[in-house]
């Protein structure tokens, strides 16, 4: 995963939530990333590449201060709970 690709994903789809006790877990991060790729019509990298990119940025699933934001967050939420649509 290129640095720009991953940085764009983080900038567009997450924000810092200092009050968060756990942040986003691995399932949430991967699903949010999948939604972001679909909405931006860009090729999705493998889960292994995502985990490597997160690790390189010291982002640990389930132990971070990230929250979802933006269109990818809305897509993720609606896909997770189709009864809301």
Which helices and strands, and how do they pair?
Layout: H1 3-13, E1 14-16, H2 26-39, H3 47-56, E2 66-68, H4 70-80
Antiparallel strand pairs: 1-2
Helix pairs in contact: 2-4
Describe the protein's architecture and organization.
This protein has about 80 residues and is mainly α. The protein has one domain (about 5-10, about 25-75). Helix content is about 55%, strand content about 5%. The chain is built from 4 helices and 2 strands, in the order H-E-H-H-E-H. It has helices at about 5-15, 25-40, 45-55, 70-80, and strands spanning about 15, 65-70. A two-stranded antiparallel sheet has the order 1-2. Helix 2 (about 25-40) crosses helix 4. It starts with a helix and ends in a 5-residue tail after the last helix. The mean pLDDT is about 90.
């Amino acid at each position: 995963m290129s640095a720009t690709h991953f940085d764009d994903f983080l900038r567009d789809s997450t924000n810092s939530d200092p009050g968060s006790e756990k942040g986003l877990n691995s399932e949430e991060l991967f699903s949010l990333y999948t939604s972001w790729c679909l909405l931006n019509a860009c090729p999705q990298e493998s889960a292994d590449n995502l985990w490597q990119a997160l690790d390189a940025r010291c982002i640990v699933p389930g132990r971070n201060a990230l929250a979802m934001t933006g269109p990818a967050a809305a897509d993720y939420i609606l896909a997770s709970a189709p009864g809301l649509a």
